[in-house]
Design goal:
This protein is mainly alpha-helical. It contains ten helices and two strands. Helices cover 62% and strands 1% of the residues. The protein binds fe (ii) ion (2 copies).
Length: 275
């Protein structure tokens, strides 16, 4: 039995700066949550105020995306840059999943909702560790290169809108991951980097689940508020996501995750088409 509530656990992860320390704590809290669930001795959801921005290590240096140097993907340096960018995305994903738990803890939700995001946070923690291992096997490490400064923007923009958060983070940003990961796997296959291929295949398989959790709980809330899911999704993405969605889409994996084409295709134009 633990005295710490799930929200307190989430805030503790968010306030941990070092990547490996953050993911170790995240995995320990996930393990405690599921052990308590299995024992029928449940951890309370509680309330704790998440920080506006999660703690981050001193390195990597965070730059405006326009100033992050681009490298040829075929070169070794290019592949290290891809791994570094993925590690940065995974670390942000750990924080995003714990943040949604703590930030919207005032909204009553079924316990399955918390199970899903704790599991997703645990998986993201594993993804970060796997990619860091690949960076290290290639003579680099997380913090070695500059990284994208804008990663927390979607969280800030939707800090007060629960459905907006579900629409933009799992159903737009994580769904985008499904579109681009097969191309990255190919780059590492061509280079014969089996370790990175294996890590990216784990990520690819598990991210379908995260998009599906987003879609499931978005639809649940639409039911609660008597809203049409497709219309609500279009309104929220146009309000909180900057710019149109970019094809090509991974239609097959998106469908598997509960995202039908009529959700995302209309958003490839930046404003609604009036007829
Ligand atoms: Fe991930
Ligand atoms: Fe994810």
């Amino acid at each position: 039995m633990t005295a710490q509530s799930l929200s307190e656990m989430a805030v503790e992860v968010l306030n941990t700066a070092d990547g490996r320390a953050k993911t170790a704590l995240s995995r320990a809290h996930a393990k405690a949550w599921f052990a308590a669930r299995a024992a029928g001795d449940e951890i309370s959801i509680g309330r704790a105020i998440p920080p506006d921005r999660p703690a981050r290590p001193d390195r990597p240096e965070l730059l405006d995306p326009r100033n992050v140097p681009r490298r040829r993907p075929g070169s070794e340096k290019g592949r290290i840059a891809i791994l570094h960018a993925v590690a940065h995305i995974e670390l942000n994903a750990v924080d995003l999943h714990w943040d949604i738990i703590a930030r919207f803890a005032n909204v009553p939700m079924p316990v399955g909702y918390f199970d899903d995001w704790v599991k997703a946070a645990d998986e993201e923690s594993n993804h970060f560790n796997l990619i860091c291992d690949c960076l290290e096997a290639n003579g680099s490490f997380y913090g070695d290169l500059p990284a994208h400064a804008g990663m927390w923007r979607a969280a800030e923009d939707t800090a007060e809108d629960f459905m907006g958060r579900l629409a933009v983070v799992p159903m737009v940003l994580e769904a985008r991951g499904l579109d681009v990961t097969p191309g990255m796997i190919e780059i590492f296959e061509r280079a014969g980097d089996e370790k990175s291929v294996a890590a990216m295949k784990v990520i690819y398989a598990e991210e379908v689940g995260h998009v599906a959790y987003g879609s499931k709980w978005f639809h649940f809330l639409c039911g609660r508020h008597d809203a049409d899911p497709k219309d609500a999704f279009h309104d929220l993405v146009r309000r909180y996501f900057h710019g149109p969605l970019k094809p090509p889409f991974n239609e097959e994996k998106r469908a598997e995750a509960g995202l039908p084409p009529d959700f995302y295709w209309p958003l490839t134009v930046s404003s609604p088409v009036k007829n």
